[in-house]
Amino acid sequence: MEITDAITKAKNNEQLAFNFLLDTFWNDVYAFQLKRTQNENDAEDITIQTFSKAFDKINTYDASYNFKTWLITISKNLHIDLVRKQRKTIKNTSKDNQDHFLEIIDDSPTPEDKIITDQNLAKLLRDIKKLKPHYQEIINLRYFQELSYKDISEELNEPMNNVKVKLLRAKKLLAEIITKPNAS
């Protein structure tokens, strides 16, 4: 499959085209992020977010630009957003030139937060049960059993890129269920 054909098919929501694009460009985007973040987990998370955002916005892609460049631009912007969020979490404060310290914001949950989280978890579990079984399974393996993509790939006997795409799809479907009005 040619890249231009894959983009056209992806715009028509053909899953194989998404898989092809992910397989073709995953290493480029991941290597770009690994160089920037110097952290495999962050690089992988940002790369997944990059493809998720790109696939969601595939209809806005302008063919006069190189597709890889478009992906790298999305990836770069996601990384910048991540860095900005981290800077908000840890404020760098100084009283004078010699006395520097970091003020760390306490994000630990209050007892009220715990109650809300428990209630939300019960609702989340009900929403997950609305997904098809193979999507339930991949959500369970990744977020409840906290398996790596490699471990999930071995557990399901599927290529790692398929696991990543399936997880992206599962998360998108779950988000639609959660945000649907009158969902219970």
TrEMBL record:
Keyword Nucleotidyltransferase among UniProt keywords: no
Record-annotated RNA polymerase sigma-70 region domain positions: 27-88
Transmembrane segments: none
InterPro entries linked to this entry: RNA_pol_sigma-70-like, RNA_pol_sigma-70_dom, RNA_pol_sigma70_r2, RNA_pol_sigma70_r4_t2, RNA_pol_sigma_r2, RNA_pol_sigma_r3/r4-like, WH-like_DNA-bd_sf
Keywords tagged on the record: Sigma factor, Transcription, Transcription regulation
Domain RNA polymerase sigma factor 70 region 4 type stretches: 125-174
Family affiliation: Belongs to the sigma-70 factor family. ECF subfamily.
Record-given protein name: Sigma-70 family RNA polymerase sigma factor
Organism for this UniProt entry: Winogradskyella pelagia
Higher taxonomy: Bacteria, Pseudomonadati, Bacteroidota, Flavobacteriia, Flavobacteriales
